[in-house]
Amino acid sequence: MAKRPTSPPGDQAKGLATRLTHAGRDRELTGGAVNPQVQRASTVLVESADQLYAPGVWTYGRHGTATHKALAQAFCEIEDAAHCALVPSGLLACTVPIFTFAEAGGHVLVTDNCYGPTRRFCDRSLKRWGVEVEYFDPAIGAGITSLLRPNTKLVFMESPGSLTFEVCDAPAISSAARKVGAVSIMDNTWSAGVYHRPLDLGVDISVQAATKYVSGAADVLNGGILTRSEALIRRIEASVDDLGLNVSPDDAYLVLRGLRTLATRMSQHQASGLDIATWLQSRSEVRRVLHPALPNDPGHALWKRDFSGSTGLFGVVLEPASRSAVNAFLDALELFGLGFSWGGFESLAIHCDPQIRRTATQPAFEGPLLRLSIGLESPDDLKADLERGFDALRAAR
Ligand SMILES: Cc1ncc(COP(=O)(O)O)c(C=O)c1O
Questions:
Q1: Catalytic site residue 135?
Q2: In ligand 1, which atom is closest to the CA atom of 211?
Q3: Which one of 99, 130, 223, 332 is most buried, by most CB atoms within 10 A?
């Protein structure tokens, strides 16, 4: 489903929070209501027979409704993109561009720390279609040049990785990719585009799981594919059409509703996340915290150069402990829910080790790896909850 904005991008002199509050609110789309209606459509009636096959005439719901157009416009505002294709999940936001630019007999480079199902798509589907998939060290930087080949079609990054939190050198990697004609793609879900703008850094396509921070309420799945290139969006739109991907207008409405408050929520996720990460660093049960905004994090220098803020998702390496002690920690938590996904208003915790799949590099963690998604609860209450977890961890050792 391709939903190109019908109005020009917003006034960049205004702050992001202002732009997100007002984006996608053309009278034409909303009829004066603050938000667009949930417009459902399969059949769209045309005025006369000569319009049935006329170019540019809206004839079918799969090509989007006013609700989708409003969301696509607002999504573009987050990263100053010119074009946004909406897809029904964050995973599709990753896989559709890969599907679009990979070619049989071609080679693709994918960061070793990418989201597991993105990797599974590459290993299961791309390989079946005769595409050679090679994983690279997220810390490779300009060294990516040695892996690029004349038949490299795309380079896929995720920064920071959503389990292991390495930051990649997006400007170096995207500029090297461009030299061989490969498309660069960034999974930018961690920053929600609020604190990291890959399109400004030379990346061709930025993708996001709007399921996380953009919608913010843990009740909808959605993805956005953002670019400033007309040529690239045309190819992505062709894939979306070929695959028949369609976002439910109800979901588009929910995502847009969440997006209105994105900038404000992110400030709180950032503040609470840093507060709790810093506190965790002082705990004897914790070996180290994986959070690029902490000065001792290996990704800190790149984060400082390329990001304007941090979010509520980070990793915690515990001192060595048995699986049952880690489970006791998690089971003792009352405010942190145990569940996958992240970026909602509620805090979540998981242990990550079973999910980590690497081939280019093996991250060495001294103990079990946990991931916390810090929600919008009071940080002191969350610390008290973690304290409960540590009591249970020590008792189970
Ligand atoms: C970094 C990252 N990208 C993409 C996705 C996929 O999003 P969705 O669950 O909407 O398919 C996730 C989901 O956890 C993720 O963490």
A1: no
A2: 10
A3: 223
